[in-house]
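Minutes, project check-in
Item: structure for the 234-residue chain
Input as provided by the requester:
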Amino acid sequence: MSIVDRAILSIKRRDNPAARLAHDAYRRLMSWNLPDSAGLRSVYSSLYFAHDAVVGAIEWLGGKFVYEPMLRSRAEVGPGLRLSALPYISGHARISIGSNCSMGKFTVLSGRYIDEPELVIGDECTVGTDVYFSVSKSIRIGNHVAIAKSVTISDGDGHPSELARRMRDEPLQETDLGPIVIEDWAWIGRDAHILKGVRIGKGAIVAAGSVVAADVPPETLAMGVPARIVKSRP
């Protein structure tokens, strides 16, 4: 143990008068605050808004001059894209994003099972931060779709479901994959998982944390693990 570590441990234990004095001084320092006054509130209110302006400007500049051009080099992207972070894209999927979409940092991984897997996102869609697309065949998302933070959408399982095939280390076949379709105006809640072969109908809502393994009809609310229809259109 180093001398510094021994000194810190002695202060934490308050082993002697000097250590107790140092410990008390540290506690007082940690509990100290600037006095609360109208003048200081005015000063720090200005600093707060200035900080927001700087952070917003950096995000805008990064999006317009770094992240968006880099994404356009990898995908077909319509006009009006708003991108707050550089996505991570691995594999050979063909990616198409419509106009006026707003997107946080997302991930696209594509498998080796077919030559041209596709990820198609329509116009005026919102994709939150940490959304994960696993594209082995086809994921098609309509217009005006909202996808919240940390959603996972996967059209394949990654490995065969049969034990014998996994023991033989067999790769997935195209028949193991199931295209996903999310129709216009659907809303996918935070931390939801959309599994292969699912169609989510127009205007449907998938509640946060749900695992969707079967189709969701239009204008319904699906919730749970596995997701079930809990509310239908009037």
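Outcome recorded: The helical segments are 3-13, 17-31, 38-72, 163-167.
No further action items on this chain.
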